[in-house]
Write a structure and sequence with these properties.
With about 180 residues, the protein is an alpha+beta fold. It has helices at about 25-35, 40-45, 45-50, 60-80, 150-155, and strands at about 15-25, 85-90, 100-115, 120-130, 135-145. The protein is built from five helices and five strands; from the N terminus they run βααααββββα.
Length: about 180
Amino acid sequence: MQFGRSYEEFEVGATYKHWPGKTVTEADDHAFCLLTMNHHPLHLDAHYAQETTQFGRNVVVGNYVYSILLGMSVPDVSGKAIANLEVESLRHVAPTFHGDTLYGETTVLDKRESTSKDDRGVVHVETVGYTQDGTVVCVFRRTVMVPKQSYLDARGGEQPGRPTPVPDRNWPGPASADG
């Protein structure tokens, strides 16, 4: 399974459809609100949301929606990233509600080689998040510094830093070819 891409693997215009989706539960949303100290009643108080808002129910906090979509994109986009350089824009264009399932896809808008180091490049992408019925809820653009293959090769290849299991009394080592 691929986890991120090297600079050479990105193609301008390519779209990566992130899988699987994520169903947002009330518990997820409330925990995120409490962890980030966002106590707005639109997100936490069902009575308030029902009686005083245009939505008539709690709305999932936008930063959680963004965080889910960003996380979804990691295996396809930034799993090998050296650095996330910038979030250029972030727009919440429709509400997400408890029980909605989020899906996302990212399109490569541009890419360029680094001007300071020849073993990396910069990729500009746009991620679109939508619910189970196709309603677009969030759109953001970001730039990511990604390694070239030469960078990865110099640091251990596809899975740098991965240890080798050590045989001991609990595991004698790989099974022999004899079986």
